Amino acid sequence: MGDLDRIYRQSIDNPEAFWGEAAQEIDWYKPWDTVLDRSGAPHFYKWFAGAECNTCYNAVDRHADGERGDQAAIIYDSPITGRQKTITYSELKDKVARCAGVLRDMGVEKGDRVIIYMPMIPQAAVAMLACARIGAIHSVVFGGFAANELSTRIKDAKPKAIVTASCGIEPGRVIAYQPLVEAAMKLAPGIVEGLLVVARDEASWELAEGRDRDWKAALETATPADCVPVKATDPLYILYTSGTTGQPKGVVRDNGGHMVALKWSMKHIYDVDPGEVYWAASDVGWVVGHSYIVYGPLLHGCTTLMFEGKPVGTPDAGTFWRVIEEHGVTTLFTAPTAFRAIKKEDPKGALIGKYDLSKFRMLFLAGERCDPDTLAWAQDMLKVPVIDHWWQTETGWSIAANCMGIEPLPVKPGSPTRAVAGYDVQVIDEHLKEVPRGDMGAICIKLPLPPSCLPTLWNADQRYIDSYLADYPGYYKTGDAGYMDEDGYIFVMSRIDDVINVAGHRLSTGGMEEVLASHPDVAECAVIGVSDALKGQMPVGFLVLKAGVDRPDAEIVKEVVQLVRDKIGPVAAFKSATVVKRLPKTRSGKILRGTMVSIADGKDFKVPATIDDPEILDEIAENLKGIGLAGGR
Ligand code: COA
Ligand code: AMP
């Protein structure tokens, strides 16, 4: 048995011993009573029950006070503004302690929630760590979400404070945050008591007296706050993610298990050493940003890179290579869509040759299925291992990966390789039986889940059970479908729910349908994700109008496109819709979304036996042609 098999077997056969040993890498105030408390089984498990720790201490203080005080903790590189800044571990400790002091002065106590609505600036990471320092629970909301989405999260998390900035910056436009934050607070009144605001040069924020504080001024005069011990099982953060409805799910992450798993992953999966420069080109608003822009690299004593820009257009498709050369990046982690964007602009990789990539060792891709073409192009151009790995907001780290720090396995295009230590991944049918190797099924994980995975949903234990555990008792349902081959390689092919993946962003078609249905002229609607060469999938809406509506279709389509942008946000990338006479349904009234996707993607499909009226499918095909979508694009 090789190292990989041995380690994997240990983690499954005796998770307590395996993770108990991995936990030695973390500093604890008080050790655990039990590594894994199973008393809440079959649904609820607690890692490192009884232990006390502090995530900020492990990510910042122990490096600042140890040998890494002068090492860069964060390099901020912002081609969109032309700014750069390096923050050492000592400086980071000072900033985080001051920010924590300000939050405390604003009345934020252990267990209180703080929403962080920020662009990709170092203050976002400082605010997250400051919350961790005093035991407050942060909830970062991605800047591309609109006021309505922000208000939903305010209502659910009930934050005492919001940390924000005067604006975000996208190519060609500055997004002033004040109108968005004010609108969100109006929709969720009486919850937020105070705001801490980073003033950026590109937009102003009018401070409301008694409510808002200016970041710079407040931190200058703050009394630094120390790390407080929290329970390993206390929440570190809540991160909302799309489910099948417009109500997002508040994924809870604990302190202890999260630290242990992330620290383990840095060496064993990414093969990175402390002191090296690790770059996750994502956003702090997504789970990748939480785990591998902020917590993972800092827990490991790496230098993390915060990049405020895009893979193309800021200023060109060579930006990634410029950053790698300039900052000596060894490991890059991004989504395949970023590579598709680069490949489109620079298919021959002419810009790659302009930079010295000699320190660059490995590229990791996740967030969506990595198509074999993109994998092959990246391998050809970069001449480094290109590693697809599969994970979810719910887990916080890889379920399947090629563990480069243990024993690299041959890459099979289209597969994120094998299950990672701690994850007993099985492809099963509705009778909980493993399907034969090579056959498609629901990809599930046998309980218990390893450390870092969600213990529950915020204030919604029953929803946690219903969403993830009820359908396959004894298993966690990932929501992905796929197969496993003879060698144990996992192939993640599609979702089994209404979640779609647009440019590596997870979005709910159900949420978009709720917005379309709120338009006064719309009687009925459906949203599907169709294949897109750049973004993986793009949402397309189908609208059935109310009887008697007598307005041009184009006008209504324009309005619903704007409505989704206003209610969910630009990140939904909802740009096409079509007015149809009727929607294809089964005789029991279920909309045949899967069949519509096949028509749009030009795939073969069987007309479902239960269809109410097969002619509707021809009508849908005609409509799709009308918006340039018959047969994919
Ligand atoms: N604040 C405000 N608006 C935002 C935003 C933010 N933080 N992030 C994105 N948006 C807007 C974009 O400006 C765009 O608006 P538009 O419709 O007016 O053009 C819209 O949301 C869609 O954004 P995006 O899907 O990012 O598309 P894009 O065309 O701007 O860029 C890529 C395409 C592929 C370059 C980009 O998606 C990318 O870099 N992806 C990397 C993947 C990634 O970060 N994944 C996260 C998980 S690893
Ligand atoms: P998120 O929670 O936003 O990270 O999205 C998680 C979902 O993205 C997964 O459930 C998959 O559907 C998809 N996903 C993420 N990484 C991969 C991957 N490497 N291969 C296939 N699908 C992926």
List low-pLDDT spans: none
Question: What is the helix content?
Answer: 25-40%
Instruction: Tell me the distance between the termini.
Output: 46 Å
CATH arch. level architecture of the largest domain: 3-Layer(aba) Sandwich
Category by helix and strand content: alpha/beta
Please describe the biggest sheet, giving its number of strands, its sense, and whether it closes into a barrel: 7 strands, mixed
GO molecular function, one term: propionate-CoA ligase activity
Domain AMP-binding enzyme C-terminal: 512-590
Organism: Pacificispira spongiicola
GO cellular component, one term: intracellular organelle lumen
How would you characterize the overall build of this protein?
There is one protein chain. The chain has 2 domains: 3-309 and 389-482, Rossmann fold, CATH 3.40.50; 503-632, ANL, C-terminal domain (GMP Synthetase, Chain A, domain 3, 2-Layer Sandwich). It has 633 residues and is of the alpha/beta class. Helix 6 (147-157) crosses helix 7 (178-187) and helix 9 crosses helix 10. It has 18 helices and 31 strands. The chain has a 7-stranded mixed β-sheet with strand order 5-4-17-16-18-19-20, with helices on both faces. A 5-stranded parallel β-sheet has the order 7-6-8-11-12, with helices on both faces. It has a 4-stranded antiparallel β-sheet with strand order 23-24-25-26. The structure holds coenzyme A and adenosine monophosphate. Adenosine monophosphate (AMP) is lined by residues 241, 287, 366-370, 388-393, 416, 478-480, 492, 495, 501, 506. Belongs to the ATP-dependent AMP-binding enzyme family.
